[in-house]
Structure formats: structure tokens, C-alpha cells
UniProtKB/TrEMBL annotation:
Gene3D superfamilies in alphabetical order: NAD(P)-binding Rossmann-like Domain
Keywords: Oxidoreductase
Species this chain originates from: Nocardioides dubius
A Pfam cross-reference name: F420_oxidored
Keyword flag Oxidoreductase: yes
Record domain Pyrroline-5-carboxylate reductase catalytic N-terminal: where: 10-106
Entry keyword annotation includes Protein biosynthesis: no
Source organism, top-level taxon: Bacteria
Name of the protein in question: NADPH-dependent F420 reductase
PANTHER family given in the database record: DUDULIN-RELATED, F420-DEPENDENT NADP REDUCTASE
Amino acid sequence: MTEIDLKTQTIAVLGGTGPQGRGLARRFAQAGLNVVIGSRGSEKAEATAAELAEATGGTVSGADNATAAAQGDIVLVVVPWDGHGELVASLAGQLAGKIVVDCVNPLGFDKQGAYALAVEEGSATQQAAALLPESRVVGAFHNVSAVLLENPEVTDLGTDVLVLGDDREATDTVQALADTIPGVRGIYGGRLRNAHQVEALTANLISMNRRYKAHAGVRITDV
């Protein structure tokens, strides 16, 4: 994989005020990347950005999701599944021509715990690709613990990130983005059609975490 310079890119995190988005934004800012946090309201995004900028010494700004999407060169979608399709469709114009990283896990919860939901398009990532025909959609960061991402005392996350997509240059870029997080490797995990099982695996990890009181992740051997 050729060396990719992410320092010239702006990383937008839509849904960046939630635990997962905030944790990813924290790690990218710590790595010296330019980060913009998106949220439904700009005030909450700006407040979160100010907190992360102070905590990391990095460059972090906040805006509403549409503005953040327009500002980002690489845009992560880290929103609840319930609002995923509506938000992605509404931002098709701002996201045209950009690498869009879908991080969403379509999960349901009942008394037995978490379980994967059926998605008409096959997965959240494939739904995003269908709604964003002019974007370069990649799936990644589905199985990373928000607790570990947000904990500044964790200096090695000790996990791999499976990166899925049909565009080799885009998946290489997202693998490099994952590599900026200490203890994380970005590993190519297949084409978009293989995203479902990676998203669904999060339900298994949640079950492991409950049983073992842990923050389980994924490690790929022999790569």
C-alpha cells in the first residue's frame, strides 16, 4: 500500500457527539489530523469540539451535519441506525465525490441482548452506497469499542479494523486512517457485499462484553 498523507485532509465525523463518533474524533485529533464534528445541532457539535480540542491539543471544529459533510474530505457516518438512511440521503449533494466511511451497525436489542437486523440492501454500508451513487463508500470502524476510544489512558487499543469496499484507493485511504489510532491496524475485509457480517459481528462482541466484562475487539491472524 502506497503511503497516504492524511494531514492534508479534513476528517468529518457525522454523529460526532455520540460515544463512538466522539471517540474516533478524539483519536484522529490526537494523531494530528484536522477534524470537524457534525451533529444535528451546531451548538452541541461546537461544544464537543471545544472539549476535544482542549483535551488533545488538536484541531477540532464543530458544525451541523450538513456543514460538516461539506467541509470533510473523508466523511465518517457514525449515527444511530434509525436515522441512517434519512440522513445519508439528505447529504448526497455534500458527499458527492468524497470517501464516505459508514460505521453504522444495524442492531436491535431485547431481553436476550443485541442481535443483527435485516437490511433490505444487505447492510448499512450497502444502503449508504445505494443512496450515494456519486460517493466512494467504504465500511469500517464497526467493531471498535467506544469506551476504549474515549479513554485517554488507553494508549494501545489492540484491535484491527476491517475495511470493506469496491474502490481500492478508497479502502487503502481508510486503512491508513485506521492506522493512525495507536494499536489499530486497518485490514482489507472484502467488498461491500461482505459488509453485513462485519456489522452483525458487533452483536456478538456486545454479548462477549456482557459475559466477560470486557471491551472485546477483533484481531486478524497471519496478516
